[in-house]
Every structure is written in structure tokens, then in C-alpha cells.
Amino acid sequence: MNLFEVYKLWDIEPVRGLDTTLWTADGTEYTDLYGGHAVISIGHCHPHYVEVVSRQLSRLGFYSNAVKNSLQTELAARLGRLSGYDDYSLFLCNSGAEANENAMKLASFATGRARVLAFSKAFHGRTSGAVGVTDNPKIRAPFNESGHVGFVSLGDIGAVERELSGGQYAAVIIEGIQGVAGIYEPSEDFLRELRRLCDRHGSLLIADEIQSGYGRSGRFFAHQFSGIRPDIITTAKGMANGFPIGGVLISPAIKPEYGMLGTTFGGNHLACAAALAVLDVIENEHLIENAARVGKHFRQAFNGPEGLDPALAEYRGKGLMIGLELKDEFIGLRDRLLFERHFFTGAAGPKVIRLLPSLTLSVETADRFIGSWRELTSNNTGK
């Protein structure tokens, strides 16, 4: 049997990792500034993470949600305290797309409405409901076209008000920072107005923090820069440093009923142990503060007092969620960074390089990347 090929793969296979370093079977060393789509939040094979997960596996790897699991309640308490949402409740699932599916379902239950409003360039996942609120027709099959989704331009508060005024929308879903689109931030004023309009028209506000959460922006969740409190928050990627898990943080105004939500694998013992280990490291090693500090260092290097880097059309992002929009003549730069300088980076289309490294990234490693960048772009050899 062959794999069902849906990704174009580089001819590189990492077999070992430590912090922000990866090695292939032949011993070639790479620096990981992408973290496997923002998943590796505390570095590859962090010793505390390895010890906690290994110990849990030796005790009990899985049992169903038909019994008590104290790891779940501990995770909910710890996540609530560190995020500032200790009065919310937590539903655990397996992925970001699943978290968004459950968030929208919950909003529909709570309001009795069917429609969801989303934004241009949004990405919320590839499962049926999540891809329905994703602004990319190429990945939506006819089956996913429910007719229950509206789209408006990010930042157009007038369009939001016109849509919500009809009283048909269960929820508005918005990313804390749009990742797949190329690192686009809703302004703080826009988020505050969005909160106000949702309250006025009886729609719930869902903050998708799957890529932008867990400290990546320099706050626990990116929307916290604006001071708003969404009704529902979704999280996943960096939550367990590579072990599949997702979470839905739910306002106390939304009351649970048996049968609303359910899952087989969500919140299993191994996943919860991994997620608790991540919170240990984030807190004990002050990784949110480190993300803010190293992110500021990147911004000063690429868009500081001397102006925008000559290779860039725009620098976007907060903390360690960075979008570097290239000028046309540097369109081949990402491949050169990988194959010549051994830096893994991400992309958003042909002109945007995304940096989504572990929150453990040091200024020294950042400077090595910045130096390689300048060497490759200074003579326009990236054509």
C-alpha cells in the first residue's frame, strides 16, 4: 500500500531533535525555526517533557472518558491559571480543527442559531465545519458548502455590523493572528468593536488561538493584547509539544448539558501528561517572556531604527509568530535558507516566509539566522 500523497515533500528526513536543532540520519544538522507548523512550543525532546510522558506511559496510556481522570482536572486548573481564564471550563479533544468544530457546535447550541461569520484569508482547519469557515475554496469540497457561513474582510467593522444586525449568526470566529494567510493581525480596536457588536446582536465570539496561542505572541493568547474576553477560545498546536491534543475554553455563561460534546481520545492520559509538562516548562523557564524578548529582537533587526530590511516588502507579527513578506526578486530565498544554510522556515504562498520556532529560541540562534539572511539577500542571489 502507498501513502495517499497530499503534500509536496522535501527530500529531508529528521530523525533526532534537541531544542531548536534537528539531525538527519547522515548527521546533517538543521536549525528549526518552524516547529512543525508552530507545534513544538518547548523545543524538541525537552528532558522534562520526555520524563513526564515516559513515566505516564509506564503507568497508564489510555482509558475512556467514562471514568474520572485527575490529569484532566489538573490540566484545566493549570491552564486556567496561566492563561487568565480560570473561571472558564475546558473541553479536551484531539486537534485544532476538532476544537473549532466543537466551538461552533457549542455556539449553535447556546444561541439556537445556525450561521457563523468568518473573515477573508481565514484558516480554521480541514474537517468539514472548520474548512467551511476557511477562506480557501480550493480545499472545500461540495460537501463542505453548508450555506451557513458568511465572510467579510478582516478589519471591516461596518461589514460585520451589517451581517450581525439580522440576528442570524450563532458566532463570529476570528484568529488571534492569521497564520496560514501570512501573519495578519486584527487591530486591537477592531477586536474591541467586534466584542461590542457580538454582545449587541447576541452572537458568540470565538477566538481561534490554535496557532497564535500558548505564549507565541508574547501573551498567553494573542487576543489578550486588546483586553477582550471571547466567549469561546480554541487551542491546539503548541499545547502538548507534538502530542495530538486540542482544547476549547468555554465561558461560564455557557452551561454544559450531557450529550452536547463528546470524544473518545480527547483528554487521554498521555495527552494530558504531555500538556501538563508543556505548562511546567512554559512557566518555569519563562517562555512567554522569552518569546516577547526574542520577537522584539527580530523586529528590531528586520524593521528597526534603520528602516525595513531591503529584502522585505513588509514585516508582520508579534513575538515568535513572524511573517517576512519578500520582494519579488527574493522569491527563492526560503529554499536557499534550507539547503545552503540549514534553517527550516515556513511559507504562506510564494512570497511570505513564516517563522514559528520553539518559544525557547535564543537571541544567539536568532542572530545566526539574521546573519545568513543578510548574506543571502545582500547581493540579490536569491533570484
From TrEMBL:
Keywords: Aminotransferase, Pyridoxal phosphate, Transferase. GO terms for molecular function: identical protein binding; pyridoxal phosphate binding; transaminase activity. SUPFAM superfamilies: PLP-dependent transferases. Its cofactor is pyridoxal 5'-phosphate. Gene3D superfamilies: Aspartate Aminotransferase, domain 1, Type I PLP-dependent aspartate aminotransferase-like (Major domain). Coiled coil: none annotated. It holds the Pfam family Aminotran_3. PANTHER family: ACETYLORNITHINE AMINOTRANSFERASE, MITOCHONDRIAL, AMINOTRANSFERASE CLASS III. Belongs to the class-III pyridoxal-phosphate-dependent aminotransferase family. This is Aspartate aminotransferase family protein. It comes from Candidatus Cryptobacteroides avistercoris.
